[in-house]
Automatic annotation (TrEMBL):
One of its GO terms (cellular component) is chloroplast. The keyword Glycoprotein does not apply. It comes from the Eukaryota. Residues 219-319 form the Rieske domain. Residues 177-206 are annotated as: Disordered. This is Rieske domain-containing protein.
């Protein structure tokens, strides 16, 4: 059976329906090309079948006739945003034409290498034709890379334009709110100054500045021991880096980089095999210290990925993400004498950690908010104040 490998589908991971989500979702993400293969017998696809196969992919309307018409020397942010969207549509169409060229050249290569065609051509003629096709293919591939760079630049431009639009909308809304809330004549000068100051928005999306290196040199609890069973994995993010927890052959927990050294596949998508985490892509297996001990289908090389010191104490899994040597003692999370643990809960909340700490330390709200869960039957505290030493 002769296998016919056919390439190429263009995939632009972007939606223009909801502009406020694009800049966040694709910040730092580049457009790319998805490739798929169609396998079958050589005689199973006729010319009409091939045409219908690629028709939906390549028969895309040329967007140049629909280019936005902007009058004047200057554009407002909305016109610029529309122009950036048009750039992406044009790059999409241009890339599809480049890929069509590669497909046609691929079919010519198949035709030249056809066993029936070789009987009527000399070796010199075949070499000449293949050399010409190789040159055309190289030029087509170069053009594809140019188109990919244009798509990436267009996506960056779109994200920038959307930031400008969102900033303009926020500025307009702030002006409208300030004009409605006019101060009364009885308001003091101090109150007027306070109202005129711009309100600072709370950034809950994460740290603006990089983490201080010393902040990593601590033991951090990252999982409950009961959740990390044998042959299970727990993926975590610590200081914006992906890690994965699992138990080794001795039953002790380990924490290694959640990225295979071979093809960067996330390891938590695989399985645990005899105390080693197995990559789901090519089956490479890593121990809890990050050393690769199995490389199927290839010669075993000395490969090791990053790992973190990992210990288990008092029902918790702890890791040390810093570069300094870890301390020999771990913090204790056991409650003081006379206190009882009501529940162990893991929650992921899209808030800044200071807000979460403020909520957990606020005991006065529990008898009113959590009446159906852990605070059921609690009495209202008479007085909450600072603890005297």
């Amino acid at each position: 059976m002769t296998a016919i490998a056919a390439a190429v589908a263009l995939s632009l991971p972007i939606s223009l329906c909801n502009s406020c989500k694009v800049s966040k979702k694709f910040q730092g993400v580049k457009g790319g090309f998805g490739v798929f293969a169609v396998l079958g017998e050589a005689n199973s696809l006729g010319p009409s079948d091939k045409k219908s196969l690629w028709g939906t992919l390549f028969d895309v309307e040329d967007p140049r006739s629909k280019a936005p018409q902007c009058k004047g020397r200057f554009l407002d942010v909305y016109q610029a945003l529309e122009l950036a969207r048009y750039d992406i549509q044009y790059c999409d169409w241009r890339a599809r034409q480049d890929l069509r060229t590669i497909v046609l050249l691929h079919e010519k290569v198949v035709e030249v290498l056809n066993p029936l065609a070789r009987e009527y051509k000399s070796i010199g003629t075949m070499k000449k034709e293949l050399a010409e096709l190789q040159g055309e293919l190289a030029q087509a591939h170069k053009q594809v890379h140019i188109s990919e760079a244009r798509v990436s630049a267009a996506l960056d431009k779109l994200a920038y334009m959307e930031e400008l639009v969102n900033g303009k909308l926020l500025e307009d809304r702030t002006k409208m709110e300030s004009s409605i809330a006019a101060p009364s004549s009885s308001t003091s000068t101090q109150s007027l100054d306070t109202m005129k100051r711009p309100r600072k928005s709370l950034d809950v999306s994460g740290p603006v500045q990089p983490y201080h290196p010393r902040l990593k040199n601590f033991w951090y609890p990252v999982a409950f021991s009961t959740d990390l069973k044998d042959e299970t994995m727990i993926p975590i993010d610590c200081f914006e880096e992906p890690w994965v927890l699992f138990r080794g052959k001795d039953g002790n927990p380990g924490c290694i980089q959640n990225t295979c050294a071979h093809r960067a596949c996330p390891l938590h998508l695989g399985s645990v095999n005899e105390g080693r985490i197995q990559c789901p892509y090519h089956g490479w297996e890593y121990t809890t210290d990050g050393k690769c001990e199995k490389m199927p289908s290839t010669r075993l090389l000395n490969v090791k990925i990053k790992s973190l010191p990992c210990l288990e104490q008092e029902g918790m899994i702890w890791i040390w993400p810093g570069d300094d040597p870890p301390t020999t003692t771990l913090p204790s999370l056991q409650p003081p004498s006379g206190f009882v643990i009501h529940a162990e809960i893991v929650m992921e909340l899209p808030v800044e950690h200071g807000l979460l700490l403020d909520n957990l330390l606020d005991l006065a709200h529990a008898p009113f908010t959590h009446t159906s869960t852990f605070a059921k039957g609690w009495t209202v505290p008479r007085l909450l104040g600072p603890i005297s030493h």
